[in-house]
Every structure is written in structure tokens, then in C-alpha cells.
Amino acid sequence: MLALSTRPVVLDPHATVNACASCDARPHSVCNAIPDSDLARLTAIATVTHAQPGTTFIQEGDPATHFFNISSGTVRMYKLLPDGRRQITGFAGVGHFLGLAVSETYAFSAEAIDTVRFCRFSRARVRTLLDDYPKMEKRLLEVASTELVAAQDQMLLLGRKTARERLASFLMMQARQGVMCQTSRTRFPLPMSRGDIADYLGLTIETVSRTFTKLRAEGFIDIPSASEITIRAPVALEGMASGLS
Amino acid sequence: MLALSTRPVVLDPHATVNACASCDARPHSVCNAIPDSDLARLTAIATVTHAQPGTTFIQEGDPATHFFNISSGTVRMYKLLPDGRRQITGFAGVGHFLGLAVSETYAFSAEAIDTVRFCRFSRARVRTLLDDYPKMEKRLLEVASTELVAAQDQMLLLGRKTARERLASFLMMQARQGVMCQTSRTRFPLPMSRGDIADYLGLTIETVSRTFTKLRAEGFIDIPSASEITIRAPVALEGMASGLS
DNA sequence: CGGTCACTTGATCGTCTTCAATACCAGTGG
DNA sequence: CCACTGGTATTGAAGACGATCAAGTGACCG
Fold first, then answer.
1. In 10 A of CB A230, how many CB atoms?
2. CA–CA separation, A100 and A176 (whole Å)
3. DSSP labels for A35-74?
4. Which B residues 117-176 have CB within 7 Å of strand C?
């Protein structure tokens, strides 16, 4: 439950020539379904954009006009109840594809946590692109299926796990996906605040903080700074995450 | 949290000639992406099957060899923690497509609640079918996207709503999708038990029962029998469901 | 009828929330 | 260099919502 930032200030688009070819996100993204030779077509419909920390660039309920593809930074996706209660449905990093939906409006909001670079595609244009590249449609289906599985895991977490188990699950998840860009296998940054973590795990800031402190006191983790974590007992934490505590 | 039924007794498959053409589920299902003229191809790879109440026909962790398409009855999908805590991730009815996943194993289990009729398709065969019918792939992507949106709603419910709000959300959801097959717009059956509802909403049986009783005492609903509900104040309940209580 | 099973209701308990105070940290300006 | 500020994180004490434990009710069925 957190205060909201102001509405999306529009961002600073700048045209780019064949940006897709040199995009950092390409290897991790659905874009790799399009062969290098045809990359110009993708570049043609993409608008490269930045969002400053705290900027809302997708607003739940707004007409769903664009798709987004994150090329750097971290995004939080969330839904709100009228009284301000917030549920973060996921964090999106490099290569993540946002905006998949049948509905005419976005089903969630998305905010930049740190500075985020991303590509924006008009839905209509992507649709025509998809017709020519069934492989890309296959990739999207894969992505959607994978997210669905992750969503089911999250339901198990939110519905049935204790605060301790939730934190352990969260940390192991971060550790797993952090490995790619980390030197140390056990130490990684947490780009999001305690409030974000709380709203992602269905807890309060205080419970998150207390549970972190306890896990540290018990020797499972270390907390060099508020936004950095070291895993001390990965196996034990993995067990805890899956409910064997 | 409920006791588990025994492992899947295998079911009674019986070959059928062009079953798909007369299938009740077809209008509601992804199958309708395949033109009537080519329906024989679909029938050729489908195996029509029944499952008795309580039968587990998909087991989390088993090799994911088949897709399923429900033609009648209701199914519960769920995940378990090692100590038996259960989270029901969804109920699947007529036309629902199960088994979408990239992974080599099923991410959830599925059990028949009442007697369920469904078609079973080998994944490999469906894959080749998809290559010939890109329209079907599009439909699958739509289905996956829709489920993803529903999953996000469920995360909001599990992470941030009160017991009261969860029950209200659940009832309105049932009412919405029940309308299709119901005569009365306000009265509908609940095929699932209190235990199922509890495990779907992240509550206990007792809390579900108490909350139902309270909602009835307050005049929002009526409970003609344990497995039937009448909505008395749909607008108020809808508000409650979205957190305006 | 007696037995089973699901559901309901009641009393107590515990985990997480809420409310409140304090600590910490980075940035700013005296 | 240090005081001041605003924001975030931590810690403590009290409270509440839902869980747990336990008993009671009712329906269905042999």
C-alpha cells in the first residue's frame, strides 16, 4: 500500500536507425523470432523511449494501444483497489514483453522502478507483423504460457505460504534470475523498495523488514545494504520457499 | 487443505466418429478456429474420455504429454505444498483448454469435481496441427492472455482482499459465468465444495462458511442449499468484490 | 436407525497488521 | 564540517482478522 506517483509525463522518444540490430534485449526477447535480415521492419515500427524512476507508463483501464519491450531497467506491474491497496503482479526486466491482452484496455499499470529503456509498438502494427512471422506468434504463446505458470506459483505463494516462506521464495527467485547479470552467485541487488516487495508478496512493509531481520539473525542471509542481499544458505532457503520449514 | 484422492484410475476412452462436429464444447472452445470442413483432422487426433468425480487426470510434475479440452462438467486445477496445503488455481468448465505450458511437465494437477467429459490430444499432434492452422494458434494466444488477466485478478484477491471481499468476488464470478447456462440470472449452483472454495480463495473452510452465513444474515445472498446460491444484492456485492466495503 | 460426511457454529489462539517511535542515509545549505 | 530535511527502513507494543481446535447439526444412505 503506497502513495501513487503522478500520471505519466510523456517521455523522450528519439528516432533510431536500426536500433533493433544492436538492442541488448534482443537475445532475451520475443524479437529474436524475427530474422536479422528482416530486422528493419521491426525497427520501423518501434519507438525507443525512456522512463524516469517512478513514471507510470501503462495505466490500468486506459485503452491498450501499445506493446512494450523492456531493454534495460526494472518495471513493476500492479493493480489497485479503490482505497489504495496495491498488489504488484510482477517485476519486468530486460527482454520482458508487456501489454499482452485481448481486452481493449490495459489490465494493470506499469511503473519504472529505476530508469527504464523500452521499445513501444503500436498494437495494430504488431498484429500485421505477427501475420507474417508465425514464429513470433509462437514465441508470444510460449511467453504467455510461461507467465501463466509463474502466475500460478504466485497464487500458491499468496494463498498458502507464510510470510517466511514468501520471503524465501522471493529471494530465491531474485537470485535465480539475477545470476545472469551477476558476478557473485550469492549476492545480488534488490532494485525494488520494501514497499514493493510487501505489495508483491501480499504483506506489509513491517512484516517484510522483520522477516528479513530474522532470516539474517538465523544466518540464512546477509543484508550488506537495504538494497542488497547475500544468500548464505541457498539450500535451506530453497526448502523454506517450497514449504519445508 | 484437503485429503487427496487416489492416483488416476485410467478412464474409459471410446473411439468416436466425427465427434467434434457435434461437440457441445466447440462453440466455446479453441476448436472453433478449425473450419467445419477440416474437422475430421481434429477428430482423428482427439480421444473422448470421461473422468469420475474425484479422479485426478493431470498430475503436477508428470510429463506433459497431452492437452485437454473440457466438453462437460467442472474441473479443479491446483498446486500442493509438500505438507498438503493446497491452492486451487482455477476451475475449468465447458470449452476450457488445459495443459498449455512450455515445460516438459505439468505445472498443476487437475481433478474432476463432478463427472467430466473431455477430449485428450497428444501434444505432438496438436503442434503439427497448429502449423497448419495459424488461426488456432492465435486463439490459443488469446486464451492464454485472458487467463493471464484472470490470474492477475486472482493475485489481487489473494494478496489484498479481505475474506468478505474474496467471497463476494467469487460469487460474482460464478454468477457471471453461470448466466450462460442458467435460467435465473440470480440463482446458480456451486459444483465445488466449501473446501474447494476455501483453497481457491486462500481461506479455511470455516471462514468460508462463516462468511457465507454472515452475507446471508445481512441479506446480500440466499443459500437455498449448501450447493446453491441466490444473489439478492448484486450491485452491493459487486462493490464489495472490488473493495468498496 | 446408526453411520458417514459435509457443513455450520462456537471458543481460543497466533500470525500478521496497525499504529507509533526511532534509526538510518543521502542530499542540501549554513 | 555539521545541522537540517525528507524519505526509507527498522523496531516495538497493541490489536484484529482469520486460523485452529472442538463440538454440534443436518442430509443422505445403507
1. 14
2. 25
3. -GGGHHHHHHHEEEEEE-TT-EEE-TTSB--EEEEEEES-
4. none
Instruction: Measure A222 CA to D5 C1' (Å).
Output: 30
CA distance A58 to A77: 9
A91, A149, A207, best to mutate vs chain B, most B CBs in 10 Å: A149
Q: Which of B242, B88, B87 is nearest to B165 (CA)?
A: B242
Q: What are the chain A neighbours of B134 within 8 Å (beta carbons)?
A: 134, 137
pLDDT (tens digit, 9 = 90+) per residue, A141-158?
Answer: 999 999 999 999 999 999
Q: Is 3.40.50.1240 the CATH classification of the domain at A9-154? A: no
The number of C-alpha atoms within 13 Å of A92 and in the hemisphere containing its C-beta is 27
Residue A123 contacts residue A64 (beta carbons within 8 Å): yes
CATH label, A161-241, candidates 1.10.150.120, 2.60.40.10, 3.30.420.40, 1.10.10.10: 1.10.10.10
Integer Cα distance of A138 and B134 in angstroms: 9
Q: How many Å apart are CA A69 and CA A46, to the nearest integer?
A: 10
Cα gap B149→A59, rounded to integer Å: 15
> For residue range B112-162, what is the model confidence (pLDDT) as tens digits?
999 999 999 999 999 999 888 889 999 999 999 999 999 999 999 999 999
Distance (Å, whole) CA B203 – CA B170? 12
Selection from A85, A113, A60 nearest residue A199 by Cα: A85
CB A58 within 8 A of CB A107: no
The pTM assigned to this predicted structure is 0.93
Give the protein-side footprint of strand D (Cβ within 7 Å).
Answer: A 193-195, 205-206, 208-210, 212-213, 223, 226-227; B 1, 162-164, 202-204, 206-207
CB A77 within 8 A of CB A156: no
Instruction: Parse chain A into domains and list their residue ranges.
Output: 9-154, 161-241
Nucleotide minimizing C1' to CA distance for residue B204: D19
**Torsion sign across C-alpha atoms A209, A213, A218, A222:** positive
